[in-house]
Backbone:
């Protein structure tokens, strides 16, 4: 791990809260090193100015005096020294040795969680984080000091639990709760220290996998707060999902700038926050049905949308004008046999390469006539003749949404006919004219 990352961790966590001030052993009332050689080795190790030399001297002291009364002080020094050298693995090793000696050492838990989290070892980081949250206050420590220490490390512990729940367990409810706890424990003036987790929380709120925890208003709020604090060169990247989900919920970007201004002021959305929800797809297609005099004039893609998301009443109305009617089927072939051609007609179907129309042919095709996946059917015009596919509306089936795909509809046609594209006419030269003959 780069030294800059370790340095960042120190700045965020305020680890100076934890370390005992290293003083000459004789000056510490509660600790007394009786052996002069041990005292000299301790003094020599803790006063080294070069971090690498200091780490070596501290390790040597622990090897020589494994039961020393100052072992905890030396390990604490060793954790700090390995951080100075930028050696994450050694920092973790020193922290785990400290926890064997002192199972309630918050500083050691913090280092262990930080290193493992950055290595994306989510389960291990979460295990140490939970132990850190369960650590007990030393009897000799004042309540204010304990509160200060826990305030510095608990946000990271909840972050580790959230990321483990999200990335390993796919437990969105726990992940969202832990991220929220992390943010509640983070002072507003330290927002920059939790931007990545806030961005992840926004994404979790927007994810369909969150199910009953999905909340697009909160997703937009946290995207907006991240946007406010993100460096200028990152703002466009944050603005993309912010604009997308805001328009998804509200219908357009009206009011988005006001949301950004509000999100700059507080970590969490106020209870008075209101974003008007756009009309649902069912409401939109109902308006289309209501405002269209002749339902036959509704575009094919819109008819399909009505059959997908409309109310039963609206679906019945549009199907009444479609049933038993012949129609062209312009689209891309997904699959074909001699008797059935499956076609993607709408943009969504084409994008996912999924058939939304099934045309049962009136007469089987010869092998050489069967179209290939990717072949395109259109609607011919006098100026631009193309291959065509047509059939008669027979039935439709709604296809439920999944975690990764939206709801759709599968429309079945009967008596299908495939009309190949007309061959271009061959122009013959006029009588007596020799092609390519030179002019005299």
Residues:
């Amino acid at each position: 791990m780069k030294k800059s990352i370790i340095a960042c961790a120190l700045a965020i966590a305020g680890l100076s809260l934890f370390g005992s001030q290293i003083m000459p052993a004789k000056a510490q009332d509660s600790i007394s090193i009786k052996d002069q050689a041990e005292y000299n080795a301790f003094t020599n190790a803790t006063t080294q100015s070069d971090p690498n030399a200091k780490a070596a001297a501290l390790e040597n002291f622990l090897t020589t005096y494994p039961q020393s009364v100052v072992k905890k002080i030396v390990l604490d020094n060793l954790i700090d020294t390995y951080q100075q050298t930028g050696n994450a693995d050694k920092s973790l090793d020193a922290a785990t040795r400290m926890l064997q000696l002192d199972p309630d050492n918050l500083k050691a838990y913090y280092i262990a969680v930080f290193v493992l989290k950055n290595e994306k070892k989510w389960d291990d980081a979460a295990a140490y984080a939970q132990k850190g949250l369960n650590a007990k206050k030393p009897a000799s420590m004042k309540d204010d000091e304990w509160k200060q220490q826990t305030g510095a490390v608990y946000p990271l512990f909840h972050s580790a639990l959230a990321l483990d729940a999200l990335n390993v367990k796919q437990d969105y409810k726990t992940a969202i709760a832990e991220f929220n706890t992390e943010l509640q424990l983070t002072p507003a003036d330290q927002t920059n220290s939790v931007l990545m987790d806030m961005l992840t929380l926004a994404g979790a709120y927007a994810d369909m996998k969150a199910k009953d925890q999905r909340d697009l208003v909160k997703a937009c709020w946290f995207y907006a707060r991240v946007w406010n604090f993100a460096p200028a060169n990152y703002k466009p990247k944050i603005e993309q999902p912010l604009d997308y989900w805001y328009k998804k919920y509200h219908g357009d970007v009206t009011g988005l700038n006001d949301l950004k201004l509000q999100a700059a002021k507080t970590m969490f959305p106020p209870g008075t926050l209101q974003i008007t929800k756009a009309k649902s797809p069912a409401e939109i297609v109902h308006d289309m049905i209501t405002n269209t005099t002749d339902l036959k004039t509704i575009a094919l893609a819109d008819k399909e949308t009505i059959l997908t998301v409309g109310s039963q009443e609206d679906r019945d109305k549009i199907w009444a004008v479609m049933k038993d009617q012949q129609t062209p089927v312009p689209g891309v072939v997904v699959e074909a046999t001699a008797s059935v051609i499956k076609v993607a007609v709408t943009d969504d179907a084409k994008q996912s390469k999924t058939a939304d129309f099934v045309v049962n042919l009136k007469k089987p095709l010869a092998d050489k006539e069967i179209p290939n996946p990717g072949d395109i059917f259109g609607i011919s015009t006098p100026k631009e003749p193309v291959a065509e596919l047509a059939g008669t509306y027979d039935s439709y089936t709604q296809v439920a949404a999944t975690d990764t795909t939206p709801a759709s509809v599968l429309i079945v046609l009967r008596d299908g006919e495939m009309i190949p594209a007309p061959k271009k006419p061959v122009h013959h030269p006029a009588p007596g004219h020799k092609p390519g003959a030179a002019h005299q």
About this structure: The chain has 17 helices and seven strands.
